[in-house]
Amino acid sequence: RAAAAGHVIDIFAGAMDQTGVAEMRGATVKTGGFVVLDDAFEGDVFKGSFKHMFVTDGSEEQNLAMSFSGQIEVKCSPEVKVCGAIGAAYPLEKKQSKCVAEREVGLGGTSSWAIGGCDPGYTISFYFDVVNQDSKNLKDQCYLQFVTTYKNSSGQTIQRVTTISKLFADIKTKDGFESLKMGFDQEAAAVLMARHAVYKIQSEYEFTMDILRWLDRRLIMLVKMFAEYQKGNPESFRLSDEFMYYPGFMFHLRRSNFLKVFNSTPDETVFYRCFLLRENVTNSLVMIQPTLMAYSLEEGACQPVYLDVSSISPNRILLLDDFFHVVVFYGATVHEWLTQEIWKQPDYAYLEEFFQGPQEDSKNLLESRMPTPIFVSCAQNGSQSRFLMSKLNPSITQNTVGQYGGGAAPPVFTDDVSLKVFLEHLKKLAVAE
């Protein structure tokens, strides 16, 4: 009833115990509301997120940067039909539309959805199907139109129409196949698959292993079609640049809090999933595969490094961003300098700027994001370092401890396979006859 009436339900919970957010998930997701969890109402996450709710649009009137009573309708040319949408939305009764496909994905069976409240960063995923594929060729075009209507915070009703034209490609021809490969957006595809997987695990699959198998099957089917290889020869397996990072995205998605709910309460799991369903591609990719930056005196300025345990070094400071957490990790040697306040000595005054770099960058992340991330400052071998270690590719584990020596990166104590092993198995399955 709230979604149909255009109301938005936000949940801000401040408690050490569970508050029933998992059971109230539908109230926020269907109305386009936010879910924010913190240990207490005095916490930085609660206060920062609550403040972000009331940012203005920068106009002279200082109107709030949010909208209400939103509705989006999809219109298609006859060759394409919409299977459904996945996001913070609610399906409306428009099942007689000629644009509706028989196959449903997510919130299907309609071509119109209520999106309740939304902010400038709000997104929703749409899934389409091509009909009469045999009669299509490269010269044919299809058209998609998105009609979005909403009320801004000053009470004005605004309608925005976005029209997209796409060419069809015949995958049976060489030119059509290459055109399809060139048009593949692996970042957007990873987010679409992540949202689809989250929807399925909440509505269809009861066990985590079922959704992991579903993801694996989809990945194998994709690389079988677009990779270059000789049957039965994994060494010949090659992926083009357009697909190069996609298997890595799926590897990190399988290990993420969206699908593996161990060590997360039901409320926390819902919190993570709600933001995956509404954030843009850039932020969603950070959730799936966090970013890792390194600060080092030897290497100069801040630079991105692999999300791998091998990136840990005693002389480095690492900054991890997984959207929900911002972690500043000090290597063993650097942490000794920090505790001894060595930069206060005249000969080491230059170290003050070195230590300020990750602090300033983490502050910018904390101040610019909704919800405000949890800030963690930790040292190598410290208890809080688990926030970093759990996100890293376990290329060195307790099972490969023989390769671990002085000065090397520490091992990750886990039974999870590394990205290298994951890709090796993917190659074997893809080239199997």
Give a nutshell description of this structure.
This protein has 433 residues and is α+β, with helices and mostly antiparallel strands. Helices cover 31% and strands 23% of the residues. Strands 5-6-3-8-9 form a five-stranded antiparallel sheet.
Written overview of the protein:
This protein is α+β, with helices and mostly antiparallel strands and 433 residues long. It has helices at 2-5, 25-29, 44-52, 174-182, 186-203, 208-226, 246-254, 266-276, 281-288, 332-340, 351-368, 386-389, 419-431; strands at residues 11-14, 35-38, 67-76, 80-86, 90-91, 112-118, 125-130, 141-152, 157-167, 228-230, 233-238, 291-296, 300-304, 316-321, 325-330, 374-379. The strands form 5 sheets. Strands 5-6-3-8-9 form a 5-stranded antiparallel β-sheet. Strands 13-12-14-15-16 form a 5-stranded mixed β-sheet. Strands 1-2 form a two-stranded parallel ribbon. Helix 6 packs across helix 13. The relative contact order is 0.10.
